[in-house]
Fold this sequence. Notes:
- The chain is of the alpha+beta class.
- It folds into two domains: 7-184, GAF domain (Beta-Lactamase, 2-Layer Sandwich), CATH 3.30.450; 188-404, Alpha-Beta Plaits, CATH 3.30.70.1230.
- The protein is built from 16 helices and 14 strands.
- The strands form two sheets. Strands 7, 8, 9, 10, 11, 12, 13 and 14 form an eight-stranded mixed β-sheet that branches.
- Helix 1 packs parallel to helix 8 and helix 8 (162-186) packs across helix 9 (188-195).
Amino acid sequence: MGSCHTKAVVDWLVNGARPASDTPGVLDELCDRLLGCGIPIGRVGLFVLTLHPHVMGQRFLWKSGSPTDVNGAPFEAFQTEEFQKSPVRRVIDTGVPVRRRLADKDCPIDLTMLPQLRKQGVTDYLAVPLIFADGAAHAATFATSDPRGFTDEQVGGLASIAAPLSRVVENRMLQRTACALLDTYVGNKGGERILAGQIKRGHVDVMNAVIWFSDMRGFTSLSNRLAPQAMVDLLNRYFDCQVPSILDRGGEVLEYMGDGLLAVFLIAPDGDNARKICRSALEAAREARDAIARLSARLKAHGELRDAEEHGAHGVQFGLALHLGQVSYGNIGSRNRLKFTCVGPAMNLAARIEGLTSPLHRAILASDEFARQCPSEFVPVGEFDLKGFAAARAVFGLEEETALFQVGAPPHR
């Protein structure tokens, strides 16, 4: 059984591999259909290079009796000796199929994975290139433990599905890549809205949210004293102290502004979960504050900030404002360059309150609206005249940071 019996599989792929909606679903269905053709596959893999900031490629692996397993490979994996000498890497580099009849005693075991596959009882192994529309080569692999291996006709049948399988996998991966890039650059909720068609300029939704506005104190002093790459590396490590805590508690990072970070924790329309969301945001704030303190201590211990400290910098310091208010969330910008973000007086108030963290010697400050949701956590630190606001605004600090509070820094009443 071979190419004549795989024609129905080819037709299914050419017609879009419906109803499978993603690559794992395509591979599950493909393997079921190949088994129905009498091809004794026991293990099938797809190896696709991706456009992702952290992942070099993805492996989709089907084994008989199990659903498809998905794993991502970091960029470092592509450079390892094991991968460079693998059948998959050879197919990607050359665009030429690789076949090894492992049951034959004189079969060359010249590539990584082959000894392991032979020990697992694999008798025949085939790797074929999947060529995408841009000319880039990816790979599909087929293995069997049938004592007879694959017949030449079956190998021809497997080779015949490579081109239509390439188109199907490429389409599914393009959608996956679009989702990953949107999540990376505009956040998960913003990415979902864009993919759902909310791309018209001026389209905004008004909603209540906890607003997180933070920045690194002394950034100018540090940036003047550190080499550019060292400054970028420090910023990445600094943001890594905040972002996981925000995401783990349901927040959405909207944008980075130099050393500043803007995030929101959306609240249900009826506001019933406001107290819960505020407490989650506060947990994230405390966790981020403590993580940044540990980062600063490590940098000092290793002497990485010595030059900056000699010129007046004082390690990595963190200021954060939390506010509960109404925001306009949507597409803003010019006709050719839009940003999915939040705007409104509430955002401005959060930024103004954050500006008080340094003179008040506090890491975390909150508005009256936020502090009322966590009454046992905050104490008043004064009322302040803030630029852009007609009336003085009450500001609150965490009771645990009271010992750091120094009276008389900014004017307050």
